[in-house]
Write a sequence for this structure.
């Protein structure tokens, strides 16, 4: 599990997006256009890489600190139905989900760009 607390700091900044534009392939041209439009819409010059970090984690955990925790989805609460509840249990057998606690953000963004620009 990789929560927003871990993905929010994985910022792709405008200076890095310009590298994508300069690459010049049809795929990087499209990626640049979509990202530039998104930055215009949100009126920022950086955006978190939520999905790219999650996809990368399916193949490698080298950019993440993780720990085994107990994860439950609240199904009965009037105001909390669907809420993800994460706890560290004393009984290790109950800690069944690997949860990301931190990311090496700059290294991850460089890794991602390396894949895009190769």
């Amino acid at each position: 599990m990789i929560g927003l607390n871990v993905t929010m700091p994985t910022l792709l900044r405008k200076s890095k997006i310009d590298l994508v534009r300069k690459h010049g392939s049809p795929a990087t041209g499209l990626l640049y256009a979509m990202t530039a439009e998104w930055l215009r819409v949100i009126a920022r010059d950086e955006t978190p890489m939520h999905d790219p970090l999650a996809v990368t984690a399916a193949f490698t955990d080298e950019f993440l600190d993780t720990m085994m925790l107990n994860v439950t989805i609240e199904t009965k609460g009037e105001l909390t139905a669907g809420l993800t509840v994460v706890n560290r249990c004393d009984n290790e057998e109950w800690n069944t989900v690997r949860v990301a606690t931190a990311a090496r953000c700059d290294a991850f963004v460089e890794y991602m760009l390396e894949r895009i620009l190769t």
Q: What stands out?
A: The mean pLDDT is 94.
